[in-house]
Structure formats: structure tokens, C-alpha cells
Amino acid sequence: MSDPVVTQPDVGDEVAAAYRDNYTLLEYIVARRYRVPRDEVAGVIHDVFIAFIRNLPRIRQKREWLVGATFKECCLYWRKRGRDGSLCEVEYDFDPAVLLPDLDSRVAVGKVLRQLSGRCRTLLRLRFVEEYSSLEIAREFETTVDYARKLVHRCVLNARALVSQPGRREP
Amino acid sequence: MTRRHYTDDELLDYIDAKHENSADQECHRELTDHVEIEQCPDCLPRLQELRELVRGLGDPSVYDIGADMPLASVPAETKILEAMMFARRRTADDAAAERAIQSFERDKIPIDEWDSLPAAHTAGVLRHIVASARADYDRSPRAALRVLGVAAQIASKLPSTDDVNEQRGLIAKAQAEALRMLGRYDVALERLDEAERYLRELPAPEYELACVDWVRSAVLFSVTRYDAALGLARKAIRAFVEYGDRESAERVRMVEAAILCEQGHVTAAHRTFVRLVLFFGSRDDQDMVARLNANLAECEVRLGNVDVAYEYAHDAIKRYEALGLDAEKIRVRWILGHALMRAGAFEEAFEEIRSASDAFAELGMTSEEAVVGLDLTELHLSRAEWIEAHALAGRLATRFSDLQAPVHYARAYAYLSEAVRGRGTTSELLGLIEYLREYLAVAEVDDEPVPFQPPLLH
User: How far is the C-alpha of A127 from the C-alpha of B141, rounded, in Å?
Assistant: First the structure.
């Protein structure tokens, strides 16, 4: 009986897959968490991937490593520009294994928001970021408190439906 | 009475109570004709899912994404291609290096001549040399150092600046590790500075720099600069945790515990070592378990539990034997010798320590040999063997002089030999040995070797 042919996985394909699979997440960290200017985001992420390739034989948890390296690289980016501390202290002493589910969920919510109507986005931002009460939303949208509450609920439930079915458009 | 489940709207009302002002909260109490939310297998998962979503919706950064970024952000194909080519080039380099090295070895070309071979001027060959040198630290740190010297010469001739920086940085770090094994701590620290300088030039170098901090911490520990060593060890641990590299973090934690032990926090160190034995045991890492058992033996000695120390030490020796790690096996025997000396078993202690001394000499580990020699002299003095102590110290002074070891080794032993011949009191001579131990530990930290100064007489 002949031995089955064992093909080694191609390192280039492995790197390309890691690049594609993690880019959105890393972009979120660089552009949104650390507010690196838009035209430099891709460069920062690329540097992280070059370091990833250099250290590939030692890396066991690839996703965690990429997230950790991105946080560090963002700190370094701002440190080089004289903004030491303020941005990095927030994330000081983090554990990417703990942070990853939260980051993934943020990226997913961000994608979903894009699919919602502009009105829903505004309502959700006022309610959950600006912490408007139902009364304040009712005033803003010139409606009743009960209806304002219903509007917010409908937007949240639409968002939930999109999270669980990513391809679906807002009902 | 049948109680019904919460609808999604009712669950959102329930969550809303946290957001609303106090007047509104009146409307959002748990509903009396419903099941208890936190106990209900139907309502609770839906409540948790909605809470998680609402938490995400409360983060302003997700709105930035929604507003400014494309729905599915994708990297530029050119960037992906660049990364793929970089990864493939490294793999191809490594494969070519293996073939080249096989041919050098087939043609019996000594490594010192590789610098003159164009086929050896690749990063792949250098990675191969560094990996073999690292495997050789334990058996032959001098040979490792010689090979790394050749690698450093080749590295400067690489065509790509990034390759030069990466390879020079990694070679300098590897040299520092070999120098630490040889007890040449001052040069090891210089090499680490050099490694850091080169690696800093690379894109995103923080992971490699954490590895440099790790080695620097170990060197500073060896020269008893415990506070500095502890700070660096903790910095490296934090960095590795941040990279999700738990294994490296736990390895540095062993250095941290060893430092704590030297600082007198023996119980805390012991606790960490025991925890680490479980961690590395679960990964079947015999080398680490052996190291940790050797450290536990030392802790037990300090805690006065000599019998338990024996057990740990023997376990470590057995594992090192199985792994073929001779220098480490010798170090454990040395630790065991200390345990026996403290327990008053001088005969057995002498056997263990003398065999450690001979073995260190055979491996060319001069610094260790010098310190072990002090232990042997102390043992002779403890047994009032003045002639033997004098002869041993004199023999070591000559040996270090012949070896062209750092000059202070020979001077220190010559002074000790004379002091023993002059028959000071035992306590004076034991005090002198302690003084010499401290001197040998710090004599090579500074840029220039610290000249030997006899202790002040009281």
C-alpha cells in the first residue's frame, strides 16, 4: 500500500488567510480604539503582519498575538508622535484572550449598525451612548414617551436579528 | 396560577430600567404575573443576549464604524500579496539554507570559513546557526559563542537592511545568553543593549524586545541586581500576556520567583514554583519541570526541609539526565551539595560539590567553577582541614591564571590561599569566603572589571 501524499500547508496561504480573517478586527482597534489617521491604518496593520511572520514559529495563539501586537503597535505609533500615555494607559495590562470576545462583538455591532436605517442609528446612539431617557427621545422626535420607547425597542430587535443573520437587511 | 414568559419588549423594558430616570423606573418593575427572569431557562438567555447587544450599542466606537467605514473592511490585495511573498521568501530561505549547510558539512568546511562562502550569506543560514547555537548553550557555551561570532560577521553583509537588523539583533541576544552561561555578565549586558538597538529598527518589534528584557532580567539576576531584574521580569511577563503568549509569560514567571526567593520571599516563590510545575507538567515539558524542581529544592533548603529538598533535587537530576542537559544536572548537584552542607553532612556534601566543580571545569564554565571552589574551601575549613584548604585555593589560583580567566579570579584565590596559610580563625576565614562570593558575583557587572581589593580587617 502506498503512503498518502502529505502536502505541507503553504505559509503564504496561511498568512493571507490570517490577514483576511483578522483585518476588520485589527482595523477596528487601530482606527476606532486608537484613532490612528485613516491613511495610516493599513500601514500599521501591515507592520503588525510583518512582525507576525517574523515570529510565526513561536506563535501558538495567532489571533491573540495579532490583537496584542496591534495594541502595542498603536501605542508605539502615538509614542513616536509625542502622545505617550493618554491613549495607552486605557488598555494597559490587558489580556487579549479576555478582550477578544468583546472586540468581536463590537465589530459585529458596528457592521449591523451600518445596515440599519439612519433614524435607527440616531435613536440607538441617543439612547445608549448619550443616555437620553424615553422622555427626552420623545421630545426630540416629537412623539409620545410610549412610542419613543417602542421605536428604540424595534431598532434594538432589528439589530439583534441582523447580528444573528448577518446577510439579512433591516426588516 | 400559570405565570408567563417575558416578551422581547418586556425584557427591553427590564433592561431599560437601568437607563431611565427615577420617574420612569416606576413602569419597569419585574412583572408579578410573569416567571422570575433570572430563574427562567427561556427568558434568561434572551435577556443576556439583549444585554450584551445593548452594552455594545453603548460603545461610541461602534457608531464610528457604522458611519465611516465600509461594511466589510478588506485589506488591499497588494498588502496581502506583499505579506505572502515575505512569508514564502523566509520559508524558501530556510530550505535553501538547510541544503547549503548540508553541502558545507559534506565538504567538511569549518564554520569559521563560512563567512567567505557567498552561499552562506543568507538570513536563512543565520537563523539555522542561531538555532544550533541555542541548542548548544548548555553543553558548550564557548563553542556556541564562537559560532555566533561567525554569524555576526555574515549578518553585516546581508543585502536587506531589515534582515541585517533582525539577524544582528537576534545574534546579539543569543550571544548574551551564551555569555551568561559563561559568567561574563558585563559583556552579556552590552550584547543585550546591542540587540535592542538593532531590533528597535524593525517594524513592530515589541515582541522581540520583550524577549530581550527576559534575557536581561536573567543576567541581572545572576549578578544579584535583584530589584532591576524583578522590574524587567515583570515587564516581560506583562508583554507576553498582552500577546496572548501564556507559555513565555510563565517561563519568565520562573525568573520572577527565583528573584523573590533570593530577596527572602521564599514561601511566595515556593508557591509560584509549585503552580508552574502543574502548568508545565500538563504540557509534558520535562526540561521546565526539572528546572522548577531544582528551584523547589533550593526553596526547601531555605525553609529548613532538607529531606524534601533531596527529593526535589533527585527528581530534577533524573529528568536532566534523561534530557542530556549536563550543565543543568551539575547545577542541581551543586544545590544538593549546599543542602547537605547546611545539614552538616560534610562528606556527602564534599562529594557532590567536588563532582560539580570537576564537571564545570570540564565544560569550561569558569565562573561557576570559581564559585564552587569557594564552597569546597569552606567545606575544608569547616572540617579544620587547613592544609587541604590552602592547597585547593592555591591550585585554583594557578588554574585561573593559566586559563587566562578574568584576572580577579586568580587574585582572589591567591589571597584566600595566603589567608588560610596564615591560619586566621575559622570565623575570619569563613567571613573572607563570603566576601569573595559577593565580590565574584559583582566583579564583572561594570564596564571595567572591578579590581580585587582585600577586605578591611576589623
Answer: 66
As for the ipTM of the complex, it is 0.77
Evaluate if pTM is beyond 0.90: no
Q: How far is CA B422 from CA A98, B389, B417, B418, B419, in A?
A: 66, 12, 9, 6, 5
At B4, is the secondary structure helix, strand, or coil? strand
Query: B34 forms bridges with which residues in the sheet?
Result: B4
* Chain B, nearest residue to A152 by Cα: B12
Furthest CA-CA distance within chain A: 80
Residue owning grid cell 436605517: A117
Q: Which range among A60-69, B133-142, B325-334 shows the weakest confidence by mean pLDDT?
A: B133-142
The single residue listed with the C-alpha cell 564554520 is B111
The predicted-structure confidence for A120-152, as pLDDT tens digits, reads as follows 999 999 999 888 988 999 998 889 998 999 999
Q: What is the pLDDT of residue B315?
A: 94
**d(C-alpha B143, C-alpha B165), whole Å:** 24
Percent helix, strand and coil across chain B, each to the nearest 5: 75, 0, 25
- A-facing residues of B in 54-93 (CB < 8 A) are 54, 56-67, 69, 71-76, 79-80, 82-88, 90-91
Within an 8 Å CB–CB cutoff, is residue A80 touching chain B? no
- CA-based nearest residue to A105, from B241, B44, B59: B59
The residue whose grid cell reads 546581508 is: B158
Percent of chain B whose pLDDT exceeds 70:
88
Is A154 or B407 the better-scoring residue by pLDDT? A154
Task: Identify the CA nearest to A68 among candidates B239, B202, B211.
Answer: B239
- Evaluate if residue B240 carries a pLDDT over 80: yes
Inter-CA distances, B340 with B15, B326, B330, B355, Å: 67, 21, 15, 14
